[in-house]
Write a structure and sequence with these properties.
six-stranded antiparallel sheet; 507 residues; 19 helices; 16 strands; alpha+beta; five-stranded antiparallel sheet
Length: 507
C-alpha cells in the first residue's frame, strides 16, 4: 500500500510535498519524489514485495529515465518478468514490471497488467501516463487545475480550494496528456458469454465447483506473495472463513501457523464463529472485545479516514477499524473477504430476484460501484493503520469466472441459500455451522448496527433534519446519516459528496 501524488503541467513541488504529508498514514516506511519539466511524482510507501530495494519513486535503472509511483500490486509481475528477461530488472519489486512494459509499449502497458493498482509513470521524452485497475481496487482521485492535472490516492490529499472539483479517477482507464482518458479493458461480465442452465435451478456440473475452488486457491496464493507475514481478518462469516481455510492449509505446509484476527462486542455472533474457524484450523488467533462506548468514540476518526458518511459503510467500518488496528500490531498484510457477496449474490436484497439475467445485471451494477463503496471502506480503514489489505475474491481471474457462470445458479431458493455455489465448492473445509451460517452484515454480526444507530439518531431533532436533509441530492435519508455527514464535511471541507461518495440503497 502506498499514497501517491502525481501532477502533469506547471506544479509547485511544495504543494506536492504538502499533499504527501496528508498521506503519511498510507506509507510509514518512507517518502520520495521526482520531478521533470512537466511532471512531478511523489509517494508515501509501504514496502511489501521488496522491502530492500522497492522504495518509491521507482526507476528500475537510471539510464532508463522512467520513473513510477504506485499503489497496489501487479499480480502478473512474475509472468511479465519471465517474458521480458530477468536481466532487464533491477529490483524484486512487482511494480518494476510496469516500468519494463511502459518502456516497450508506452501507455498500452496498462492493458497488459492485472491486479489492484493505481500507477503514475513519467518517461524521458515527456511521456506521462496514469492508470487504474478495472475494478478500482486501488483508490485514485484527480482534478484539473488550469493546465495542470493532479492525482492522489485520497481526497484529503488535495488542497481545500481544489476539493470541490475532485472526482474519482474511473477504474479501468488510463490518462495521457496526448489522448486524454481511454478505457483499458471491458469490465468483467459486461458482455458475458453466460453458461446458461437448461432449467432455472438445474444442478451445475461438478467442474464448476472445482473451478471456483481452484481459482480462489490460486488467488490466495498470489495475494500472499510477499516477504512480509500475512494474516486474515476473520469476521466469522463464510467468506473470510474460506480464506482462512485456504491460507491456513498453505501455512501448515510451510510449518507455520496462520495469524487470524477477530473483533466484536461481548458475545457477538461473529466472535463465536471466528473462534470455531480458528479452532478448526489451529490458527494463531487473536481477538478484541470492545464496548459500545469504544465504538461510538471511534466514529469521528473512522469517518475522517473513511472519506464517507454512508451509514451502512460506517457500521462495517467501525469493527473493521478495530480489527485492522489489532492486526497491524502483528502483520503488514491481511486477507479480506470483500467481493464474495457481490460475485455470488450474498446480500439479502439479492434474494428478491427470480430471473437470472436480472440478478446478473444487479451484480454487475454493484461491482461497478464498489470503488466508492465497500472497497473504499477496506482500503481507507486499513490504510489509515499502515496495513495492506489483499482481496482474493476480487482477483481478476476469480471475478471473470464468477461473472461468466450461469446467474440462475446464484438465485436463492428454499434449498439453496445465498452464496450456495461458493459454500458447496468448499464443503468439508469448515465446520458446517460456519459454512452454512446465515449471512450477516459485518456491522450486524459484530453488534454495531443497533449501537451506532440508536446513539447517533438521538443527536438530531426532527426540526434539524427537516432543515438540513436537502443539503445533498439525493437527500440525506436518516437522522444518523445527517450526523455522519456533518462529521464528513468537517474533516473534508469542500468535497462534493454527490460526486465522490457512494451510498448504499438502504441507509
Amino acid at each position: 500500500m502506498s499514497g501517491l501524488v502525481a501532477a502533469h503541467g506547471s506544479f509547485d513541488p511544495k504543494v506536492g510535498l504538502r499533499m504527501l504529508e496528508r498521506l503519511t498514514h498510507r506509507g510509514p516506511h518512507g517518502q520520495g519524489h521526482w520531478q521533470t519539466d512537466d511532471a512531478w511524482l511523489g509517494s508515501r510507501y509501504l514496502s511489501i514485495v521488496d522491502p530492500q530495494s522497492g522504495d518509491q519513486p521507482l526507476t528500475g535503472g537510471a539510464e532508463r529515465g522512467i520513473c513510477l509511483v504506485g499503489d497496489g500490486m501487479i499480480h502478473n509481475h512474475r509472468r511479465i518478468r519471465a517474458a521480458a528477461g530477468a536481466d532487464r530488472f533491477y529490483t524484486a519489486s512487482d511494480l518494476e514490471a510496469a516500468i519494463v512494459l511502459f518502456e516497450d509499449h508506452g501507455a498500452a502497458a496498462f492493458e497488459r497488467m492485472w491486479g489492484p493498482f493505481a500507477l503514475a509513470i513519467a518517461g524521458p521524452n515527456h511521456e506521462f501516463a496514469v492508470g487504474r485497475d478495472v475494478l478500482g481496487l486501488s483508490p485514485l482521485y484527480w482534478v484539473r487545475d488550469g493546465e495542470t492535472t493532479l492525482f492522489a490516492s485520497e481526497m484529503k490529499a488535495f488542497d481545500k480550494h481544489l476539493r470541490p472539483r475532485v472526482e474519482p479517477f474511473p477504474p479501468g482507464h488510463v490518462w495521457t496528456p496526448e489522448n486524454g482518458l481511454e478505457a483499458i479493458r471491458e469490465f468483467p461480465g459486461a458482455s458475458p458469454v453466460l453458461l446458461q442452465s437448461r432449467a432455472p435451478y438445474e444442478e451445475p456440473p461438478e467442474w464448476v465447483f472445482d473451478a471456483i475452488r481452484e481459482t480462489l486457491v490460486r488467488a490466495v496464493e498470489r495475494s500472499v506473495d510477499s516477504q512480509q507475514p500475512v494474516g486474515v481478518l476473520l469476521s466469522g462469516g463464510v467468506d473470510s472463513s474460506i480464506l482462512t481455510a485456504i491460507a491456513a492449509r498453505r501455512s501448515a505446509a510451510t510449518g507455520r501457523r496462520l495469524k487470524t484476527f477477530a473483533v466484536g462486542l461481548a458475545d457477538s455472533g461473529d466472535l463465536r464463529a471466528a473462534r470455531a474457524v480458528a479452532d478448526f484450523w489451529d490458527t494463531d488467533h487473536r481477538e478484541l472485545v470492545y464496548t459500545a462506548e469504544d465504538a461510538i468514540e471511534a466514529v469521528p476518526e473512522v469517518i475522517a479516514g473513511l472519506e464517507s458518511f454512508d451509514p451502512t459503510l460506517v457500521h462495517s467500518a467501525v469493527p473493521n477499524f478495530f480489527v485492522s488496528r489489532l492486526a497491524a500490531r502483528h502483520v503488514k498484510i491481511v486477507l479480506v473477504g470483500e467481493g464474495a457477496d457481490e460475485l455470488f449474490a450474498g446480500y439479502t436484497h439479492y434474494g428478491r430476484y427470480d430471473v437470472g439475467e436480472e440478478l446478473h445485471a444487479e451484480l454487475l451494477h454493484t461491482l461497478k460501484g464498489m470503488h466508492i463503496g465497500g472497497l473504499q471502506r477496506v482500503d481507507r480503514v486499513a490504510g489509515a493503520l499502515g496495513v495492506e489489505p489483499r482481496l482474493p475474491f476480487l482477483d481478476l481471474d476469480m471475478v471473470e469466472l464468477a461473472m461468466a457462470l450461469a446467474p440462475e445458479w446464484k438465485l436463492v431458493t428454499d434449498s439453496r441459500p445465498a452464496k450456495w455455489l461458493l459454500r458447496r465448492a468448499f464443503d468439508g473445509w469448515l465446520p458446517d455451522g460456519v459454512l452454512w451460517r446465515r449471512k450477516e452484515q459485518f456491522g450486524e454480526g459484530t453488534g454495531m448496527n443497533d449501537v451506532l444507530r440508536e446513539h447517533f439518531e438521538s443527536m438530531v431533532t426532527a426540526q434539524e433534519f427537516e432543515a438540513e436533509a436537502d443539503v445533498l441530492q439525493p437527500p440525506l435519508r436518516t437522522y444518523e446519516e445527517l450526523v455522519y455527514y456533518r462529521m464528513f464535511t468537517r474533516s473534508l471541507e469542500g468535497v462534493d459528496a454527490g460526486v465522490t461518495v457512494g451510498r448504499f440503497a438502504d441507509a
